[in-house]
User: Fold these one by one.
Assistant:
Number 1:
Amino acid sequence: MTTLTLGKAINEGLRRAMEEDPKVLVMGEDVGKLGGVFRVTDGLQKDFGEDRVIDTPLAESGIIGTAIGLALRGYRPVCEIQFDGFVFPAADQIITQLAKMPLRSLGAVKLPVVVRIPCGGGIGAVEHHSESPEAYFTHTAGLRVMACSNPADAYTMIQDAIRCDDPIIFFEPKRRYWDKAEVDLTAPGLPLDRARTVRHGDDVTLLAYGPMVKTCLAAATAAEGEGRNIEVIDLRSLNPLDMGVITESVQRTGRCVVVHEAPVFSGFGAELAARISERCFYHLEAPVLRVGGFSTPYPPSRLEDHYLPDLDRVLDAVDRAFAY
Amino acid sequence: MTAEAPRGADAPPELIQLLTPEGERVEHPDYDIELTTEEVRSLYRDLVLVRRIDLEAVALQRQGELGLWASLLGQEAAQIGSGRALTDADMAFPTYREHGVAWCRGVDPVKLLGLFRGVNHGGWDPYEHNFHLYTIVIGSQALHAVGYAMGVQRDGADAATIVYFGDGATSQGDVNESFIWASVFNAPVVFFCQNNQWAISEPLEKQTRIPLYKRASGFGFPGIRVDGNDVFACLAVTRKALADARNGQGPTMIEAFTYRMGAHTTSDDPTRYRVADELEAWKLKDPIERVKAYLFKNQLADQEFFDKVDAEADALGKDVRRRCLELPDPGPEALFDHVYGAPHALVDEEREQYFAYLAGFEAGAER
Ligand SMILES: Cc1ncc(C[n+]2csc(CCOP(=O)(O)OP(=O)(O)O)c2C)c(N)n1
Ligand SMILES: [Mg+2]
């Protein structure tokens, strides 16, 4: 066991993947000497050289477009998008090319490209540095979408993502980069498309991913005092969804609250709520409730505590679920 | 496998300079400029004051009063020279570092701090000073500037548009598209690229193999490289480019060759990627020292003048600090204001729900 921060766990996972397979490349803005603005690629260029850890020109469309070309040539590029808000210049390459090329080739083409995106708010940043753009990508067929929440998962998930032959959007909760935990560097993780029940309970199911898993766990602990037994599921994979784990849990608890930072309206929670109502309708004691951001652009940092779901807002939704 | 030294690097490109780092005036056949003593003193004052604002902002960030600050240290001449070339009718589109241009446009420095303190995303009315909001997404504003210039062109107005961006930004698709648009439509726009040699940790070689100003010719308009630490040259070159734009001669790209003396932003640690020698070499080319030397040598200003400017700078620094600390924190209603211009059912509903939720806490506290 080793104690690692989430950022360092991804770093270790990248290192492992690069050692294992010489075709794995890391590319992005400032990923070389600087080691990325969050130091997630720290030391990799020194150890693997400039041909495998590539400081790219400042152009996100270029990063993804050339990663596609490298993948066509048999490489496995891991692209870093510096901040969530800067993935949009690459949206065209991701949505019209990366997601669709394998199908167009009837499977002849594989695009094992991983797009790492530090996501979410809570670090007091300026505009465009706190976005949660997952729903744009879960809505795009052809992409797998993953979100890690803790160091141990991050370590295995990044390696599994790199090994997978499909293109993957990989979200990293930036405000949790400095969270520490014990990581077993030899233990295999859960398969990449599986959810994990991180806390067992029978009264209500909280569904979360990325940065909100920690918030939900804190809410569950706080609710214990009030005699409420909250189950928390970390989705890990947003597309595909591990509906087995979700369905079993909600059918048992009869109540479900979905929590994410992104705006509720047309957010990923809408998909979860719809699927749960389809599969658990006769078990539900209350509608599936959603806690998330408002239908407003991510606010200036002095307002982000209002915007971001916190323990109180999660528990408020739990109370409302029990009020039905 | 990575690129060798850029081809053609041995032939140093022409750099327009009117004032040497030692404070000597040099003549240039195409870009001469007549400046009165008052004008030179005024440029000097601008340079000193914006450096002081910048220093104060860095200090405020260190003390936790700003979330972030992007320092303009070293780039004062590029910004004041180009900023002072603008007429009131001209429009400027900045990045996030154009505090000196903002100063020239009459934007209250405290308004710049709002964004970095996290009380708003902009804070000034772009129309009031013909100075657009800061743009953080690299390169986006280049297209806005060209579109704006196309509007000016259609209005038949006697105005030009200038857009600022960095060396890193020249790699973005948006910037290259803006070059194409400007060229094809002969838009009255000046592309002002501050080549400060770095895009965070990436040196210029990661963005280009030819001098940036040479890119312009491939797009079909003139490109010029100017000593970005020479406020006279920046003023002269920008004035000419703006006049050309107003006179229907279309776009110009100006590459202001300068140096980012500080960190990329207060979050950055440049010791991880660049050597101290480089900074030392550029210190000798300081944009303020050479104007001071020029004023001194030519007896255009005495110690009393310099002391007065310094005192004014100190007072300004204090004033900026005081008013920064007084910036009111926005209330939660600010989340929902201005998202849309017309009433919007969803936002209205969420506002109402959130205020009811907050009221629940107050009711709880009273009990
Ligand atoms: C589209 C986009 N990608 C990445 C970033 C992150 N970022 C902020 S500043 C910067 C470097 C900009 O370099 P340059 O254009 O040279 O301007 P400078 O900061 O040196 O003034 C980067 C990569 C961003 N703001 N926008
Ligand atoms: Mg730069």
Number 2:
Amino acid sequence: MFDVDFLVDRVFPSLNAGLWMSVKLIVPSAVFGLLFGVIIGIVRVFGKPWMQRVANAYTALFRGVPLLVQLFILYFGLPNIGIYLEPYAASVLGFILCSAAYNSEYVRGALLSIRQGQLSAAQALGFSTMQTLISIVVPQAVRRALPGCGNEIVYLIKYSSLAYVITCIELTGEAKVLASRTFRFTEVFLVVGAYYLFLVTVASWLLHKVEERFHIPGFGRPRQ
Amino acid sequence: MATPESVTTSGTPILRLENIGKTLGGKRILSDISMDVDKGELKVLIGPSGAGKSTLLQCINYLIPPDEGHIRLEGRVVDASRKSELYAFRQQVGMIFQDFNLFDHLDALSNVSIALRKVRGMSRKAAAERAMAELERVGLANRATLYPAQLSGGQKQRVAIARALAMDPKVMLLDEPTSALDPELVGEVLAVIRDLARGGMTMVMASHQMDFTRALAHEILFMERGSIIERGSPAELLAPGSGTRTADFCSRLTDLCEECS
Ligand SMILES: Nc1ncnc2c1ncn2[C@@H]1O[C@H](COP(=O)(O)OP(=O)(O)OP(=O)(O)O)[C@@H](O)[C@H]1O
Ligand SMILES: [Mg+2]
């Protein structure tokens, strides 16, 4: 069934271009999604009451509305109020906002799991609130949130395929174009599946390395 | 060795509590607590569960800010509304908690050195050297690279003591430092505290370790429902037939211990 010439001449070149676009979508979304997720998670636990309310509302909104609908609003809706986003910008923005909301949930859980006693101990030693956050709370919370946030990155790799719906042609988009031109859906989408599997495998491996690098006895799963 | 008699009662006390009161959730937790703690003195707080011992100790370093009264360190009233003054004050008052409260993500050495680096601004190297010296003092130099999850309860509490000592506190507050420990680990922690007492460290300690208290306390403060209802030397309060609430409470405590052992 696999036609090597078709794969080499048509499938790989267009999918590789799509893969590159996917990577350009995923990497900044993952980095900033994590960064904002950590900040929003901290605000949700340690912020002033009004800041907590804003951050909670943000999280509820972006976790509660389907990502596709968010992307439609960013791309098709914002022009109504005079804001025009490129498909790529709209996609990355949508992904960052969404994964930040999910990551903030993991970070919040991790922060709440840090025992009040450790905060009292830091205060008793003369730490300021900010120093306590930076030296005690965040290093522990990041470690506890890492598995969850890693999971979120794996999801992000897969939901990045939604970008093609707002005409940012990435891996899935290229595949769809190619498949409808050639009507060879099976081959094209099997290869696309393999590409995503590859991306997820690389990401999982990297995340595992990071977890290992930051491993401390008593945190998360024991080192194998 | 500092015996109870050798404490000077003249001059300003290191720590003075003046009419401390605290209400939490509409409930009066502490009322009108006053005491003077002189240099080198060990005061032991005793009393039933819920008497307010932990709350009082946490009021002293403003982990729970008192609503009434004043706290003086070496004669100066602490103005806790000024953050920098509060942080500077807390550096001079060491605190030991019942459940250790070590920083879980740091090894023993870093648990001791982190405040030296972040709060005192010492260099990494100088802080590590000082931390090592403190770990040696509590007999844990060979455990410096272990994390809290790898230490026994007694070892954790000794690291916590080293962490407080590294800040050169003028006073130490100890909240039932051995009550979360398995019985066989109590001795090693009490030995460290005993050495501190003999070395002249000023301490206020909530404890139900009666043998230790009898031997080392300069004064026992018996608390109940947020007030100090009896105070005096162990000899006065614990003498057989003295008829004090303290003696009564302690004899019941001893019966309890004999029952469970
Ligand atoms: N945040 C709070 N709000 C309301 N009540 C509180 C609060 N914290 C403590 N209390 C109450 O204050 C009282 C004193 O508590 P505290 O922990 O100081 O007692 P304790 O003498 O240390 O007891 P234990 O021997 O059990 O440690 C208790 O009745 C407790 O229920
Ligand atoms: Mg208590």
Number 3:
Amino acid sequence: MAEKKLLLWLSQLACNANAHSLLNHPSLEEFQKSFDWLYHPLLPSLSSLDEILDNYEEMECDILLIDGALCAGLSKKGVRMRDMLEHFAKSCSHILTVGTCATYGGIFSAGGEDRSGLHFDGEKRLDGFSDFFEKSISLPGCPVHPEIVVSVITALAQGGSLPLDSYRRPKEYYGYTVHDGCSRNEYFEYKIDRHDFGHLEGCMFYEHGCRGTYSAGSCNMILWNGVSSKTRVGEPCHGCTEADFPTRGLWRTEKHMGIPARLPLGVSKRAYLSLAGVAKAFRIDRFHRRILEDEE
Amino acid sequence: MEEKRDRKIQIVVGALKLFAEKGYYRSTIPDIAGSLGMSSGNLYNYFHSKEELAQEAIRYISSYLAIRIREVNESKKSSREKIEDIVRIYFETARDEPQMIDFFLRVYLSNREVFSDGCEGMVCVNEFITEIMIFFEEGVANEELRNQDFFTAFGLFMGYLGGMVFLYGERMLPKALESYIEDISENIYRALGV
Amino acid sequence: MSRTLRLIEKVEGEVSLSYRVENGRLRAVSTSFFSSRGIEKILRNREAMDALVINPRVCGICGHAHLMATVRALESAMGNPKLTAKAEALRELTLTLEMIQNHFKWFFLTIAPLLGMKSPIQAAIEPSRTAASMIAVVAGQYPHNSYAIPGGVVCEPTIREKSILLYSLEKLIGYFTRYIVDTDFRSIEECEKIENILRMDGYLPQAMRLIMERGWERLGRSRDRFIVFGENGIFRQGKSMATRYYPSLRPDYIEESFVPESGANSVRYRGRHYETGPLARAMVAKRPLIREAHRRYGDSLLSRIMARVCEIASLLHYCRELIAGIDLSQESYIEPGEFPQSGVGWGVVEAARGSLIHRVEIEEGLIADYSIITPTQWNLVASDAEEGILHGALEGESADAPIELIFKSFDVCSVCTTH
Ligand code: SF4
Ligand code: SF4
């Protein structure tokens, strides 16, 4: 077996959910056998953060994982986080921005000055770390699905190609939308625009602000905690993998004269409205009945 | 294929003229075939029934208007100017192709049973409705039109135009239809604008 | 005299602890945090419902408690709309499961290494993963969901979800027996004798023995004042000074004040600091085993560790009752009516680390003000070392004492404090 790769997890302004989420990976114990953590905020690590802060200039890692929003003024024990990130970024082979905060700035970027992701501030490209752009991979999500972290690290360790999009997100996971695989798809297809909370039926695109059809992610394909997803249980997708997360009015669909202001990814208004018009013309009884209703 | 399609359109155009003269219910398949100089048997190769022909006719009208409104939608004009363009398209169609608007108002809207099987809801006028929706949606997105329910806006716009064309058809308007475009557009804008 | 500065890490972020050593004893203890994320500022001028999505992101390990505090605060501002028993039970269940995963992680990832215990990583991961998937089966995912909304919950669990919950809970109970104490988990709740536990197998008795062997069992004693705001099937509201108990508290008696050197807000109730968390809950609810530990060792690190780990047994029992009581035929959600244009609401819950309090003020339909008071603020932040809870636990302690263990016996959450 090849030498174990050394991973380093450095939190910036974070909530620690990405770190906790990783612990939910079904094969974490096995994964841990192939990699060492120089530091992880929860898992057993080779060094303490204290030691790293004192001696980071003499240390290196193979894969650097950055969690949380970067903040220009953030320092720990007098060490500027920016300097430390730059040091490890130089020598490592890959950088992963873990979560929406580290990728785009995320939720906390509105809480203070000078906060952003590593390469992006929302959709805007930054150049502070642009020397490392080519070795960076973006794993947005609030939090990111643990399977994505584990399989991307594994793929990097094993070599081979990892197709990325322009935000440097792996296409295997971000080439889909959250809508793909949602159990409410039929209600979307046939334009049943009614949805009531607390029910298995209905699609939340029309009234309750579901952003699944235009948010990149595979929440409904790889499922959360191995069992479900927000939209499956009946919570709208809030687009937490996207550069603009969190938008405003997260529980209602913004509409212009009754027409959803945002349409499925890449679908033109004309295409959407034509199909919607056809679908709406037909009343399909099955979609107006409760799934669990007893039948005569 | 292409040829068959063209021929179908010719039949629709001929039929619309006949419907306008004789009325939809009084026009029979042999009448329509006769007016086009073809045999009834031949016409049945294209349409199995008068209903089918009527449905094709409404799709044809919807598409005729949609193509023209789409050009308006794709222009860079303000919503106020677009309203005027759409009103003009509608009135010019009523003036130049009265049989179309006549069919839409007198046959399509008043004889829904003819369209129940195959033209459910608004499927057969979908192209036209889509363009109107795009016009509304963009007007709201650009903050020129007030955000409201689609049907309240649609009813106001189309009901108004339909009413004017009806008056025109009944020769009750003292002036030429075009001379109302300006005022009507202004009224619609005032009703729908922010 | 120079101050010692120590980085306490793996407390959901880091805290910097500083003190002076005088004649071998700690003096002038204080804590400080590296940053603040500004959640309260982010919330201002947003639609009230947005808080349901933003607030869980305060914390990766107790975000669900923040969701519950938020939904209660919003509901209180709406005049407390009616909920079905099913919706209430589901909310209680997922909140309780979050505590269970927290306690397992804390004991095996935070405390065990400090005692030099060789517990396997599975002891932390298997139970927390199972609890997380149980939350997800009704709430969609964990961490970070917003499935509780004013009026109930968004989901409609069926027999699928119910049976997953049922059997996963049995798994959790199995982990308790395998990793914590090798006994029927119900017996912990009734047990009154510490010796009975000490004689058993499992990592809890092992940890207790290690602490006692080193003579640490009475370290970390503080003010002996406890407070519990949340109330539910197993927790009781009230405060307890040593063993005297006072019921019913008023959240408007809470005072928050910014402590500049700490970078966080301290919290008092009618002018005084209180300890919050499992030890406080056990004292207020008069749990026999923990009262016995308190009688012998005071509000020490051992009492704190025992209270938190033994609480798992009560939480598991509560989950079992909740799951059994869920009537799938009830509605999950009752439309609560329009949001008021203005109003004030309080949301109080017991989170893993203690009482969590949210307060929302709505004006013109938007959030005009939002404040969050987290358990770690109660336990860790004080402007006066003579008053604070952690300060009481460390002040005057020998410099050779297990300072980090005393500190972490509070189950500190840095990210919550720096919301
Ligand atoms: S992206 Fe979400 S999960 Fe990640 S640190 Fe930010 S708030 Fe936490
Ligand atoms: S609820 Fe959302 S993700 Fe599911 S089908 Fe509807 S739009 Fe798609």
